[in-house]
Design brief:
By secondary structure, the chain is mainly alpha-helical. The chain has one domain. The protein has five helices and two strands. Strands 1-2 form a two-stranded antiparallel sheet. Helix 1 packs antiparallel against helix 5. The two termini are about 35 Å apart.
Length: about 120
């Protein structure tokens, strides 16, 4: 069987665009669950202790979904932390002196069923 007027160069960007939109939706679901699971400390005013100037919820607010435009692998990434919130990985994995309090990996595991629905049905 032959398909007439098939132009893969035209169809590929549409298909990849729809797939990337679904991946972004999955990323947003995971990021929202990570924000819910993220530990939130207390505000410490500047100059009131060893670790002064800490904002409560800064780690939670730093969780974001980034769509990698121009990346040949066509992926999205979910980041936690920034220059100001440099301690995100230590909260996730723990240190010698601090117990781990994971929030990203449990969010991924908790979102598997919803992610599968979004990828299959686009809902």
């Amino acid at each position: 069987m032959r398909v007439a007027n098939w132009n893969p160069a035209k169809a590929d960007p549409e298909i990849m665009g729809a797939a990337m939109d679904r991946l972004v939706a999955v990323g947003n679901v995971i990021a929202e669950k990570a924000r819910q699971k993220c530990p939130v400390g207390i505000d410490i005013p500047k100059g009131k202790g060893k670790w002064s100037g800490r904002d409560a919820g800064a780690l939670r607010d730093s969780i974001r979904v980034v769509r990698r435009f121009g990346d040949d692998r066509r992926n999205i990434r979910i980041y936690a932390g920034s220059r100001k919130v440099f301690y995100a990985r230590w909260v996730e994995t723990g240190t010698v002196k601090m117990k781990k309090r994971p929030f990203l990996r449990p969010a991924v595991y908790a979102s598997k069923a919803e992610a599968k629905q979004i990828l299959l049905n686009g809902v």
